[in-house]
Automatic annotation (TrEMBL):
PANTHER family documented for this protein: TRNA (GUANINE-9-) METHYLTRANSFERASE (PTHR13563), TRNA METHYLTRANSFERASE 10 HOMOLOG C (PTHR13563:SF5)
Chain residue ranges for the region called Disordered: 137-158
Protein name per Swiss-Prot or TrEMBL: tRNA methyltransferase 10 homolog C
Reactions catalysed, as given in the entry: an adenosine in mRNA + S-adenosyl-L-methionine = an N(1)-methyladenosine in mRNA + S-adenosyl-L-homocysteine + H(+); adenosine(9) in tRNA + S-adenosyl-L-methionine = N(1)-methyladenosine(9) in tRNA + S-adenosyl-L-homocysteine + H(+); guanosine(9) in tRNA + S-adenosyl-L-methionine = N(1)-methylguanosine(9) in tRNA + S-adenosyl-L-homocysteine + H(+)
Organismal lineage: Eukaryota, Metazoa, Chordata, Craniata, Vertebrata
Key words of the record: Coiled coil, Methyltransferase, Mitochondrion, S-adenosyl-L-methionine, Transferase, Transit peptide, tRNA processing
SAM-dependent MTase TRM10-type domain location: 180-372
GO biological process: methylation; mitochondrial tRNA 5'-end processing; positive regulation of mitochondrial translation
Length: 415
């Protein structure tokens, strides 16, 4: 009964009171300090003047208008906010169910989760975020442990020794930084150009673009510390691209001070075509030696789905020479695709430029992908191996025939 009274009070407050105010009825028509009494209202309605009597039709209109306003407010809620709220509820349910779900997720990551095309894609994306969060926690834990060890060592050492050590390390770091910058500046004038083709953003997802930028940052760092660095060119680079925003996140204010060349022009408009060689794993031509007079192009692309032929097709459209690293010539390949990361390609090219030794250069290929180095091409080894097996098989057949003839002659003698 009390719940019914509360419900009637809410209806009267939201509908009848505005109607009573419009028709000039007295405020003390309804008593809210006590339980609602319908007989009291009826007595007041009968005692009032005809102008103050409650019109039921008008009351129904007011109630309907109040309901319509509530429905319109519910509908006017932004669709995006409702989707994000539903996504957060799903994440909370999956977390309670024991699935791999990150503890903290940003609005941008939540929107990316909502835009995933399928449930499996959402699970994979959440697993990626969960592993990324674990890596961050582990890195933070390691940094904290390292900081604690450093503080303990500083406490044990004297203040004077600490000051001398830190000052010498800082001085050494400043000197090395100046030396690296000088080499990079010299390479921009006299160095051999190396081009990163930045025209593959449309062929990759956001996650793949981030991985590409991370690998290019590592490549630039390796090149900067090299004895004879390349003059790096970022060609087909757009200022409003995702590449640019990711580079700003990594380099911040140092982006404008990098000793590299960034341009939105194509490399065919800057260099002569006869000097350009596009390095791609899909090329039928195998690179035999490193040519210091050529300009090598590396496609800035990381594809988890292994889209074969994309860079080769682009090189053919531009009429450029292509080449692939001689992995089968020097390595007994184990498993997986013959695609390498951009930082691995940079280390291989720098080693070839300095030494010209393929064995030293290919040491940067991950060990899990090959069994060992070979002195001859793999196809020649396969031919010799098949010849050895054939000779062994033929020799075995001859021994079986001799043994059969000997056993047959013994049986004839016994008869």
């Amino acid at each position: 009964m009390q719940s019914a009274n509360v419900l009637l009070k809410k209806i009267i407050r939201s509908s009848v009171l505005p109607f009573a105010a419009q028709h000039g009825m007295k405020k003390d028509l309804f008593l809210f300090s006590r339980p609602l009494s319908l007989s009291l209202c009826l007595k007041q309605d009968n005692a009032g003047t005809p102008s103050e009597k409650l019109d039921l039709d008008a009351w129904k209109k007011v109630v309907k208008s109040g309901l319509q306003e509530e429905v319109s407010e519910a509908v006017s809620e932004p669709k995006e906010l409702s989707e994000l709220a539903a996504a957060r509820e799903i994440l909370e349910m999956w977390r309670l169910a024991g699935r791999l779900v990150p503890e903290n997720i940003s609005e941008e990551q939540l929107k990316a989760f909502v835009e995933c095309p399928s449930k499996s894609a959402k699970k994979k994306y959440l697993k990626y975020l969960h592993l990324k969060e674990l890596h961050k926690k582990n890195d933070k834990r390691k940094m904290d442990e390292k900081r604690e060890r450093r503080l303990e060592s500083q406490e044990q050492a004297s203040e004077t020794d600490v000051v001398k050590r830190t000052s010498s390390v800082c001085a050494w770091a400043r000197c090395m930084d100046k030396a690296y910058n000088w080499r990079a500046a010299q390479s921009m004038i006299f160095g051999q150009p190396l081009i990163f083709d930045m025209s593959y953003e449309k062929d990759m997802s956001v996650r793949e673009v981030k991985n590409t930028v991370r690998q290019i940052v590592l490549s630039e760092s390796s090149n900067r510390r090299s004895v004879d660095p390349f003059h790096i060119h970022f060609c087909n680079f757009q200022d409003d691209s995702l590449y640019h925003s990711e580079f700003i996140k990594h380099y911040r204010e140092a982006w404008g001070r990098l000793l590299i060349t960034v341009t939105d022009q194509c490399y065919t408009d800057i260099f002569p075509k006869e000097k350009l060689i596009y390095l791609t794993a899909d090329s039928p031509q195998v690179m035999k030696t490193f040519d210091h007079d050529k300009i090598y192009i590396v496609g800035s692309m990381v594809d988890k789905s292994i889209k074969t032929g994309v860079s080769l097709a682009r090189a053919k459209r531009l009429g450029l020479e292509t080449a692939a690293l001689p992995l089968e010539r020097y390595l007994l390949w184990n498993s997986g695709a013959k695609n390498l990361t951009l930082d691995q390609m940079m280390l291989i090219l720098l080693t070839l430029k300095d030494t010209g030794d393929w064995k030293k250069a290919l040491e940067f290929v991950p060990k899990r992908k090959y069994c060992g180095f070979v002195s001859k091409p793999v196809h020649q080894l396969k031919k010799s191996l098949s010849l050895i097996n054939a000779l062994r098989l033929r020799k075995g057949q001859e021994e079986v025939q001799k043994q059969f003839a000997k056993n047959y002659s013994k049986k004839l003698m016994q008869k």
